[in-house]
Amino acid sequence: MANARGLVAVNVEECKGCKLCVEACPVDVLHLAASYNTHGYSPAEYDGEGCTGCGVCFYACPEPGAITVYKNWADAQEAYVCGVKKVGSRLTVIDSVKGLAQCEACGQEVILSDYSNLSFSE
Ligand code: SF4
Ligand code: SF4
Questions:
Q1: pTM of the prediction?
Q2: Candidates 31, 47, 57, 68: which one to mutate for ligand 1, based on the most atoms within 8 Å of Cβ?
Q3: Could you tell me which of 56, 83, 99, 121 has the fewest CB atoms within 10 Å of its CB?
Q4: d(Cα 104, Cα 92) in Å, to the nearest integer?
């Protein structure tokens, strides 16, 4: 994950599970989750590594705000919004292999590969 050139964040509740992004991704690093959102759709999910940051999934998605691509972790870290304190924060990577980071605002640990628990400003 540390060497990935892009980072994809799916807003689980906005995603309709149409799979267009999954099929459009040139390097096949998206899939539909095994779980469901509150609307009963299986949202898109990032495999956790290999994203090139090309943005094809963003342009393929018909749902505004469902999928966002960041060019690198630094951009994503800057855009992170703490779900507990509801303020802009930063993520400090603790273990890039296990995909663990810490939110500077609330101090809680977040799992980077579980994008459903990450929130980013537009
Ligand atoms: S930005 Fe490109 S490589 Fe990354 S998940 Fe989207 S389509 Fe795939
Ligand atoms: S992120 Fe967009 S394109 Fe991908 S499955 Fe969800 S709604 Fe469809």
A1: 0.70
A2: 57
A3: 121
A4: 7
